[in-house]
Amino acid sequence: MKRAPRLGVLAVWLAMTLLACSPWKAEAQSCQTVNDLDEATKSAITTAAQRYFTMAAGGDAESLKQNAIASLASNFTDVEGSVKLRQERLAGTPATVKSAFLLEEQGAAPDPHAEFFCGVFGKNGPTATAAKFDLMNLPPGKYAIVLMEATSTKGRTYFSPVLQVEGTDWKLAGLYIKPAQIAGHDGDWFVNQARQFKAKGQMHNAALFYQEARNLSAPLSFMGTLATDKLYDEAQTAQPPDFPAEGKTTELIANGATYRLTGIYPALEGNDLDVVVKYQVPDARNANQCFQSNMAVMKALLVKYPELRDAFPGMNSRAVDTNGRDYSTLLPMKDIK
What we know:
The protein has helices at 9-21, 23-28, 39-57, 61-66, 70-73, 77-90, 187-199, 203-217, 226-236, 287-304, 308-311, and strands at residues 29-33, 95-105, 111-118, 121-122, 125-126, 131-138, 141-152, 155-166, 169-179, 223-224, 250-254, 257-269, 272-280, 314-320, 326-332. The chain is α+β, with helices and mostly antiparallel strands. A hairpin with a 2-residue loop joins strand 4 (121-122) and strand 5 (125-126). Helix 7 packs antiparallel against helix 8 and helix 8 (203-217) packs antiparallel against helix 9.
């Protein structure tokens, strides 16, 4: 899972120094928070965001596509899939605008790594309402990021449209929809559970629950706040060195074979939060061989980390090859022997 960008004091100081010493950089990017916007701009942005929420809540992906910028409309599969997957969490409930940001990227070509520092940053780092956004290959233009939430019988859901102005219209440039609660629990609950596991010395369970807490703490993976910064620092104190994390792989020996693990993380499977283990295989199209290796990896993982049985009702073992194909096996913990 990609972590939200950190806003540590050193990073903020460096960013401010670069902005102060490089006038071109200051001119290239700017950001305003919702409190900085004039009423007309604020109204136009939030009205457009609410309109797109209504379309998504009604499952109207076609209207969303018609109101999208050309580059998004030409590759709309991910947005359409997200709307289909999350529509029942949005239907029949209003959305509340929690915050909004106006971003402007100038220049003549897309920025390979655009960083926006939004709000007030004090001597000790970001304030509670400040945020940082890391955006890759961002074309020049004026953008708005609107953070919204909706609460239905399915739980609380983040709805975050990214808008780009074209003439007087705020077109859809991106859409991110994800649960703010998993199995009825929010990020604070997962933090408390992680702390309890840590206190018991179950550092692997603690690390996985910190992962889920971080996932639920921000609506966007490319957004950093004071809260995500603090949570990242706390989670680092429980990160076991023998777990794959942030691009680092680890090895697991099972039935005399060595498997390279690329990820271990929690994921919602139906109504249960299970643990997922991903590892590399030469070819995931060999179903029988992948099933056997999936079983071996699950058994070996529980031998190595028996504490996982205390935290998760099931495990999903995923064999993934270099072409991105995968073969998954999901079993309840009680059936892994």
